[in-house]
Amino acid sequence: MREKIYYITTPIYYANAPLHIGHAYSTVAADTAKRWQALKGRETFMLTGMDEHGEKIYRSAEKSGVKPEEWVDRGAAAAKELWSFMNISYDGFVRTTDNFHKKAVEEVFKKLLAQGDIYSADYQGPYCVSCETFFTEQQVKDANGNCPDCGKKINEIKAESALFFRLSSYGEKLLNFYKANPDFLKPSELANKTIDTVTRGLKDLCVTREKVTWGISVPGDPSKTIYVWFDALVNYLSGAGFPHDMERFGKLWPADCHIVGKEIYYFHTVIFPALLMALDLPLPKKVYGHGWWTLKNDKMSKSTGNIVTPYEVCKHFEPDILRFFFLREMPFGADGAFSIDRIEERYAADLANPLGNLFKRTEVMLSKYFGGKTPSDGSFDAEIFKKQTEALQKFSSFMDELQFHSALNALWELVDAANRFIEEKKPWVLFKEKSPRLNDVMLTLEGCLEFITGILSPFMPVKCAEMASHIAAEIKLPEPGAFRKGQVIPGGEILFPALDIIRSGETQNSD
Ligand code: MSP
After folding, report:
1. CATH number at residue 432
2. Domain annotation covers residue 132
3. Residue-range definition of the domain harbouring residue 475
4. Which of 28, 183, 248, 417 could join 241 in a cystine, given CB atoms 3.0 to 4.6 angstroms apart?
5. Mutation test of ligand 1: which of 9, 12, 13 has the most ligand atoms closer than 8 Å to its C-beta?
């Protein structure tokens, strides 16, 4: 039987302000995970999109003097432009204003209403527009009268005959599911919080808003719109074909992984699974909550205005360098401080020096000793074969667990070993001595370049294509010990120029 299509998603982003490093981080992570699965030969599907309804978006459009339709069109166009800039290869893009999505939300809503999972009652309680979240009086009291998530001033809302989803009746089932599926809540630090929250007991969730016109109307009651999170979560279904293309949906669902920031983990690990249970649909295999990029010790966030965009960073670096930095700098799940200085340090320590030099030295030596070809005879070094085998095995299992940072550590053990191999074997001495061992050394080194280029490609797809062209290789999942005899090595421009060279280029360009 064919393996199910690997289906991975990002959050759908609010269309109320420019997307920044934080949003790019989630999207790059999903894209890298997808590319890794594809490299292994699996069919893949990555979904992203825009969350376009609700009071927050409506207000920001109003403030800018633009109709909400036009406002969200601009947001979606800007997101697509950013994803193309960041070399993201998504397969589906849902906008919650898309008709097919609206229909899916209506269908889900009607079904839950008909089966009694949604019921009517009065609502009064605190609501944060910035987070589009309902809170309890106690949560707000504990946060000194402010929003427990973003700290902003919070308002009380009141609605007669609002509609509620019976979230409270799914607590037990959710706990059983978490227990039976230990891979679902990742990483484990976040899992415990979710389990605690559900164990303490869930309250039913208000799923309608009054007086918020920019949204999907409640079927049969146009005076209300559907709560924006209910609307948004359904994107993972509608984007996979539910219910308009059930054949495609059957090939994609359940999702293999939802990647989300930790602040929206609850929505994805409690509310969404409960909705799926109510719909009698299988639950996703994994929800991975990652940490935050901070700036001056605060979460980078458009609502507080302390943001950096990928465009600003990429004035100095190619987008692939930023992609690499995102996943190399901190474990996926932890928080990290964002700064250009740190990118520069990483660039020098991981790319320009060990990797860039490995390419350059190997290319120069092949050109000098063999006229720009790999030797026509020789064998692969046994020690390096062992190192490649280890690197591939560790890299693969870390990547399957979305431990990008550890996967790169494992790969860099090989990069370092290859550089040490040059120092130890001293090919320049072997050349002088006309030693036949020079062939083995050079074939092994070229094999390492090919190995690294293939395996690194999910992280830096464009840069690795450039690396591949240097050695006239194909990008593929590497095999330990593989090498090519008599292969022309064209070389090319320096792959990772030193920072002072990049800077002097910038000065020249700006003159
Ligand atoms: N629209 C909701 C998500 C609905 S999903 C069904 C939303 N949108 S958002 O525009 O606010 O994007 C939030 C997501 O962006 C986070 O979950 C995270 O993936 C990413 N990030 C935003 N700021 C971030 C950081 N400072 N650091 C890392 N990622 C963060 O919430």
Report:
1. 1.10.730.10
2. yes
3. 340-504
4. 248
5. 13
